[in-house]
Design a protein that fits this description.
globular, mainly alpha, 0% strand, 307 residues, Na+/H+ antiporter like fold
Length: 307
């Protein structure tokens, strides 16, 4: 319990330590790859456990607003970006594939935890995560139409449905625990749940950074290009959304909206797409972890000031 409370107090620096370990310990990163699906489910369980069913479900009006945000995040943004690539004749480039799939993906499974780390309300983030994943088979179709090299969308849809089942089971288990044994958790219990979340996210990053270490020694220039692209793709939307909402009457959902705009579960598509298509994405996904895990450290002052 003392360890968990320590992790909660120093969560931002634990994430940085995970990034460093993912680069300098490539063998450990390779070993962690196989545990990623289980860690994603555990992370979602912890986020749902902390939030509870009442805050997560929200009102009907919240769900309608959530659906509108999902349509904007997962349909309008990727189609607009791919349209820009098409104008310049670069729709078949690796950058178009990486950014198109990133924006078509639902919010990261750990986005509720990131929202909590920046001091925001994680309930809107969890609603965006669940609904965005549920609607992914529908929202991804127009994006796949613009990227025909992805192959049969039915294969991707099957993997999305498997992920949706995982999310449903993890959330249901957490809510059942909140409704039975953990009806009114105190501050100490909440800190321990936060510590568990930080620890799981730190371990997860090892498996996601497996391509970065070799690229750092073998092709640093290529690594620098993909890292710059990943930082722009992650932090850019966060800044645009946060600054756009800075004058909104109610800014309580600002961190949730900004974080989900830039932190997407692109790794979801790796389980369904053929290796010859996903090979150019592996280094991008590894670089993408850097701004993702630095979000609590870099963006907390901005979100607090704007909120």
């Amino acid at each position: 319990m003392i360890l968990l409370e320590f992790c909660a107090r120093h969560a931002r620096w634990l994430l940085v330590a995970g990034l460093v370990a993912g680069v300098v310990l490539p063998q450990a990163a390779d070993r962690m790859r196989g545990t990623l699906p289980g860690l994603v489910a555990l992370l979602l369980f912890l986020a749902a456990l902390r939030i509870g069913p009442r805050l997560a479900l929200g009102a009907v009006a919240d769900l309608r607003a959530t659906a509108l945000v999902v349509a904007l995040w997962q349909v309008v943004l990727p189609l607009g970006l791919l349209g820009g690539f098409a104008l310049f004749g670069a729709l078949g480039s690796p950058a178009a594939l990486a950014l198109g799939l990133m924006l078509a993906a639902p919010p990261l499974a750990g986005s509720p935890n990131l929202t909590m780390l920046v001091g925001g309300d994680p309930a809107p983030t969890l609603r965006l995560l669940v609904l965005g994943t549920a609607l992914l088979p529908l929202t991804a179709l127009p994006v796949f139409h613009m990227l025909p090299a992805l192959g049969d969308p039915a294969v991707v849809t099957a993997s999305v449905l498997r992920l949706l089942v995982t999310i449903a089971l993890a959330t249901a288990a957490a809510f059942a625990l909140r409704l039975s044994l953990l009806k009114a958790p105190g501050q100490t219990a909440m800190r321990r749940i936060d510590g568990c979340s930080a620890l799981v996210m730190t371990v997860m990053v090892l498996g996601l950074m497996s391509e970065v270490g070799p690229a750092l020694t073998q092709d640093p220039a290529r690594l620098a290009v993909w890292l710059a692209l990943a930082c722009a793709a992650n932090l850019g939307p966060q800044l645009v959304v946060a600054l756009s909402l800075r004058r909104a009457p109610d800014r309580s959902a600002l961190p949730a909206l900004a974080i989900t705009s830039g932190n997407r579960n692109i790794a979801l598509f790796l389980v369904a797409l053929p290796p010859e298509i996903t090979a150019p994405l592996l280094l991008f996904i590894g670089c993408y972890q850097v701004p993702m895990y630095l979000t609590p450290l870099l963006m907390t002052p901005l979100y607090r000031a704007l909120r």
